[in-house]
Design a protein that fits this description.
Number of strands: 12
Oligomer: single chain
Helix content: 25-40%
Shape: elongated
Number of helices: 8
Radius of gyration: 24 Å
Strand order of the largest sheet: 1-2-3-5-4
């Protein structure tokens, strides 16, 4: 049974705020709160005057009103995050939970303010798109498969920043990854139908000046596996700082928001297999279609692709000598 959000336990006041203390935040005090308009708030009490630092570092976030108020105690201020779009309440709650966890490590009000501003800089990308629509099961699988390859590419000699910049799937470009002299189209396949892979357009296996690979990744639902939230977080944590903001923007463009919905299901990656798309590879491409034919989708039988197998090392940019074209 889903626990109620903390704001449901707070009645709106006739004036000022009604609050509920956040557990685990000690050096500064933090509160779940409602105001007289019934808005959901997250409030951090700061000692001292932080107006200049707040104004200098303030981060505009769609759907959030952020302000610094004078507190009733002399020499203190309230840093207030107020939700203005009710549809974003789940996302706001997750932001506040993450924020409360990190505020527990803060030892001064200055550190607490810096922590809040850092979180807002990151989370503004997730608030930029209206909440409501959830990724479908197929979209979740597709995103997990792409992130699996992103992790592999980041762990290769290319490195994390190049891997993130190579990831073009969220931009709806022809192939999911383009780097060096190669392009990679990533496809997830399910245990229920492991023998076929769906190609959704006549552009996906078209090559223009690049060596093209088709990479299939089977995802098996398993309690020992990783959820979409888990793989997004672990991929992000492994990236260098210069790549993090670009990564956040790309997963947000893919329709992802760090919501509890994506804590399940969990998947194990099984049998990743690469194929070199070259002469004789069975495919339908725009340049070979009759005039007037468009929006083609089709399925490939994987048993007919064995002669085109290539090692994952070849996809990552290493030698193609082990491939079997």
């Amino acid at each position: 049974m889903t626990s109620p959000l903390p704001w449901s336990l707070i009645n709106p006041p006739t004036h000022d705020l009604n609050v509920l203390l956040v557990d685990g935040v000690e050096a500064v005090r933090a509160y779940w709160a409602r105001d007289a308009q019934g808005r959901r708030l997250f409030v951090i009490r700061l000692e001292g005057d932080h107006r200049r630092a707040f104004v200098a570092g303030r981060v505009p976030v769609r759907g959030l009103d952020t302000d610094l108020w004078d507190d009733s105690d002399p020499g203190c201020q309230r840093l207030v995050l107020a939700l203005s779009i009710d549809a974003d309440v789940e996302l706001f709650h997750v932001l506040c939970v993450h924020l409360a966890s990190d505020l527990g490590q803060a030892r001064t009000s200055e550190q607490a303010l810096s922590t809040v501003l850092q979180h807002l800089r990151r989370w503004k990308t997730f608030f930029a798109n209206p909440s409501g629509a959830r990724l479908s099961s197929e979209q979740i699988r597709g995103l997990i498969a792409e992130l699996w390859f992103l992790e592999a590419l980041a762990g290769s000699s290319w490195g994390g920043l190049a891997a993130v910049r190579a990831w073009l799937g969220p931009d709806r470009v022809q192939q999911d990854f383009v780097f060096g002299d190669r392009a990679v189209e990533v496809k997830s396949i399910s245990a229920a139908d492991p023998g076929t892979v769906r190609i959704s357009s006549e552009n996906q296996l078209e090559t223009v000046g690049s060596r093209l690979f088709l990479l299939t990744i089977r995802l098996d639902e398993d309690a020992a596996g990783r959820s979409l939230n888990h793989i997004v977080a672990s991929t992000r944590d492994a990236l260098p700082g210069a790549a993090v903001e670009e990564f956040d923007n790309k997963v947000a463009s893919a329709g992802y928001q760090p919501l509890p919905d994506y804590d399940t299901p969990t998947f194990l990656v099984a049998a990743p297999q690469a194929y070199l798309v070259g002469p004789g590879f069975p495919r339908l491409v725009r340049s070979e279609l009759a005039a007037g034919v468009c929006r083609v989708s089709y399925q490939l039988l994987l048993e007919h692709l064995s002669g085109f197998r290539a090692p994952i090392s070849a996809v990552l940019g290493e030698s193609l000598d082990a491939a079997n074209p």
